[in-house]
Amino acid sequence: MPHTQQWLDTTSGRITTCPHSWMQAVHWIAGSGLYTPARNDGPKFGPTTIALAQEISALKECRPGVDYLARKLKVSERTVQYHLGMLREAGLLVYRSKGTRVRGEGGRASVFERTIPAVFDEALGIRTIGEGATRRPVGAAEEHRSTLGKLAKKAARKARRRPRRKSSSAERRCTPMQGGSTGTSSADRTYSPPESKLASGQEKSQHPKKAKRGQRTLNKVGNRYKLGREATTTIPWLNGASVPRISWVLSEFADAGWTVREVQAVAESIPMPAYGVKRPSGMLADRLRGKAGMTKTMRAAYVAMWEESRAAAKDRHTGYDDLGTGPKSPAARRAMDEAFAAIQARLAPVEEEPVTVVPVAIEDLTKQEVAAMRVEAMKDPDLILVSLELIGERDTRRLYSNRLVDQTLALEAINARRNTFAPAF
Fold it and tell me: DSSP 3-state helix, strand, coil percentages of the chain (rounded to 5)?
């Protein structure tokens, strides 16, 4: 049957609802020799086709899945497709609806109708009534009843596929390499090769190993996950956060070439909350909002400021190795002397007169002294704490600026909450 006659509305055959009658037509076409497959390089109409037809005849709705038939028959899906095509070409199957592949909905299987070609009815003298594919048989010629009986016996038997033949190369026997009249083979004896033919280990292999590929480069998504993983393992308040979520927050920064040190420096430029971090990803996104377009120079300045503050915090916890050494600027030394004087006044006995400390007015300091004191305070935030006790918060903020005072208070709150401080490097 050509492709145009393999549909229900164009076929010349008739629909059959009896699987046994349909299998009679399958066996008759297999033995008649009237059908020749259109493909010259594919399989032939034979036992596999009959076994496939038996599986199809057992279906209540002729909607066979290719993968299901391949599992049942233990063949490849391509083989099942070949034999289904031969059944259509022989006029035994026609399309009721052809399967399609709809994106988003999955594949839809084809629905077939089992039909008996008109050549079968004409050859065996089967009389039918009706028109088109819905006509039905009402009798058969007397001289063809024996043939129908033989076909009925074949249809009742279950066809079995023949096992595959083993390769003939596995049954070959070794023969002597040299001809001769002797009947014995040299394959039953083992000889050691001479030393002249043994490999010295210096000859090149016939199959040299290929050079290994270099280090794989990460794509855009890989760089985002790399930065997110480094952030969760390096930044203390991001420990335990979800790596995919942090990678999503830092996606723009990873695309712009940021490092984890730059991310930490910019994020920690604002004092950390005293109550701790409850939602690390949300805090990170809030602190980095709108800062992905910063230049390298601005990022380097943030990193330098962050490193100075961390180094100062490290020095504050390690303490001075030599108490005889201290700040070198006069203003810082004067503040330290006042702090020691206040401590001595508190530790002095009650009967002794307290030490009178004469405070120094901020207006008396020059701009150079104020700048030097702020630099010393960045290195040693304890000077700000001492000034808060001596001159009060208002004058301390005038002297050291609000930013330094807020950073020092935030660090003190974190130290009071934690017994140990995370290492800076």
Answer: 50, 5, 40
Rounded to the nearest integer, the mean pLDDT of the chain is 78
Percent of the chain residues topping a pLDDT of 70: 72
Residue type, 119: V
Contact predicate 133/115, CB 8 Å:
yes
Amino acid at 184: T
- pLDDT tens across 5-49, in order? 888 888 888 998 888 889 989 989 888 888 888 888 778 888 889
Distance CA 6, CA 28 (A): 19
User: Which residues are CB-neighbours of 331 under 8 A, at least 6 positions away?
Assistant: 365, 369, 370, 372, 373, 376
Given the structure tokens 């022989």, which residue do they identify? 90
Phi first, then psi, for residue 102 (nearest 5°) are -100, 125
Residues 6+ apart with CB under 8 A from 249: 228, 281, 284, 285, 288
Sheet of 14-15: strands edge to edge? 14-15, 111-116, 93-97
- Do 256 and 293 contact (CB within 8 A), yes or no? yes
pLDDT tens for each residue of 133-176:
888 888 888 888 888 888 888 888 876 666 565 554 444 444 44
Q: Per the structure block, which two tokens stand in for 194? A: 């001479």
Per-residue pLDDT at 216 exceeds 80: no
Q: What phi, psi does 315 have (nearest 5°)?
A: -65, -35
Q: Measured on CA atoms in the order 225, 230, 232, 237, is the torsion positive or negative? A: negative
Rounded distance between C-alpha atoms, residue 240 and residue 233, angstroms: 8
pLDDT at 329: 64
Model confidence, pTM: 0.39
Torsion of CA 162, 164, 168, 171, to 10 degrees: -90
